[in-house]
Amino acid sequence: MKKRAELAAAWRTARQAPGKNSWFVIKYFLFAYLATMPVALLLAALQVTNQNQTALVGLFGGALWYAVFMAVVFGPIVEEVVFRGVIFARLLQKSRILAYAASMILFALVHVAPYMLTGGIKNGLAIISYLPLAFFLCRAYEQKKSLYASMGVHLLQNSLATILLYSQLMARQGIIYTKEACMIQAKTTKNLLTDDRNRVLHPIFVCRRRCMAIRLASVSSR
Predict the structure, then answer these.
(1) pTM of the model
(2) Which one of 4, 6, 53, 151 is most buried, by most CB atoms within 10 A?
(3) CB-facing half-sphere around the CA of 44: CA atoms within 13 A
(4) Are the C-beta atoms of residues 107 and 79 closer than 8 Å to each other?
């Protein structure tokens, strides 16, 4: 009941200045995104796979609406209530440093720990990719004293991540279809080069126009 009353009060506060509060959410979302980019580049250089994102991509193969709902709606709401509304808020009364540390580390562990057990310690390095976001979620909650602020930042972050992952998946499928189509067409040509390097490049140049038609047909058939 107490948490419900706090949410109701926070909602009334958020409605009083929608423009100002919206800009606050967008600002902290941009801070979190910019802070996460260097970490993501570092992990990519170390060839560390974020298995949590891989699992989300796997959900795209089923019901797309379910993947979007879990990532964009259900996840931000539940995680903010637990990690900011309960853990961070209660520890903040005792120690600010402890509140930040516990909320950030537990938030990151929830996303990575299950895959550390199955994918090895190296995948556990992905934990650092969640720390910048966790910090700004805590900061947004502390600044506004409202779960709606951190929920808004979290929702924007997950929405962008979902869009980017889905776009990359579609792009990869398109590239796969295009290359396969080129190779099929290349097998029917009489002047296929014998050089290994040219054998790879030749289908792309010879079948460029045919590939586009086959790719469009493949996409439409799905």
Answers:
(1) 0.71
(2) 151
(3) 6
(4) yes
